Amino acid sequence: MTNQKLNIGIILGSTRQGRVSPQVGEWVKGIAGSRETANYQIVDISDYNLPFLGTTDGTEPGISAWNEKLDSLDGFIFIVQEYNHSITGALKNAIDFAREAWHNKAAGIVSYGSTGGARAAEHLRGILGELKVADVRTHPTLSLFTDFENWSEFKPQELHLANINAMLDEVETWSGALKTIRN
Ligand SMILES: Cc1cc2nc3c(=O)[nH]c(=O)nc-3n(C[C@H](O)[C@H](O)[C@H](O)COP(=O)(O)O)c2cc1C
């Protein structure tokens, strides 16, 4: 194994106008930024203009760019918001647009919603299993009632910091381990 830093993508799961996921993603990136073992970057699904899977001939440049971005990453932090007790359609669509690029990598989940986004996060865990992504146990859950003002301005409680760092530790450890079995 080389001493190269791990590359970890913080994937924003929502794409709607007025979404709060960029605030949450930037907060996680800010916490992760002080760590020396990995490089963290925001990966915004909406930058890739992915079509709805199966509705085009699949030659849009965003599809290959999305796969190349995932290929370049060793692990993922999913910023997950609860839509009708599950993940967003946009995130599921983006997940479905890649296969091998997900394999044998690790992931952490940071979720939010009225019950911390827990139901969406649990759905995502099932999907990740099919894609050979090892999702870590520690799962920070943010409440729309106590970590946001007016459901729109992100004001995280201090108590989440320890959980975020514990999750990042787990993702880095597993990302590094899984890197050794990929070519
Ligand atoms: C279509 C839709 C469905 C939603 N369903 C739920 C839900 O089932 N449970 C929940 O806790 N919040 C639900 N919400 C509230 C969202 O979790 C909340 O608006 C959150 O800010 C969405 O994330 P975003 O701002 O990044 O898009 C729903 C929001 C939308 C737009």
Write out key terms for the chains shown:
globular, FMN_Rdtase-like_dom, alpha/beta, binds flavin mononucleotide, Rossmann fold, Flavoprotein-like_sf, 5 helices, 183 residues, oxidoreductase activity, two-stranded antiparallel sheet
Please give a structural write-up.
One of its GO terms (molecular function) is FMN binding. Residues 7-138 form the NADPH-dependent FMN reductase-like domain. The protein has 183 residues and is an alpha/beta fold. The chain has a single domain, classed as Flavodoxin domain (Rossmann fold). Helix content is 35%, strand content 22%. The protein is built from 5 helices and 8 strands, in the order E-H-E-H-E-H-E-H-E-E-E-E-H. The strands form 2 sheets. Strands 1, 2, 3, 4, 5 and 6 form a 6-stranded parallel β-sheet that branches. Strand 7 (148-149) and strand 8 form a beta hairpin. The termini are close together. The model has no long low-confidence stretch (mean pLDDT 97). The structure holds flavin mononucleotide. Flavin mononucleotide is lined by residues 14, 16, 19-21, 81-85, 113-115, 144, 151. Flavin mononucleotide (FMN) is lined by residues 14, 16, 19-21, 81-85, 113-115, 144, 151.
Approximate shape: globular
Give the C-level CATH assignment. Alpha Beta
Structural class: alpha/beta
Content of β-strand: 15-25%
Overall pLDDT metric: 97
Overall CATH architecture: 3-Layer(aba) Sandwich
Helix percent band: 25-40%
Radius of gyration, in Å, reads: 16 Å
CATH superfamily: Flavodoxin domain
**Spans of 5+ residues with little confidence (pLDDT < 50)?**
none
The number of domains: 1
User: Would you tell me which CATH topology applies?
Assistant: Rossmann fold
How many strands appear in the DSSP assignment? 8
Order of helices and strands: EHEHEHEHEEEEH
Number of continuous helical runs: 5
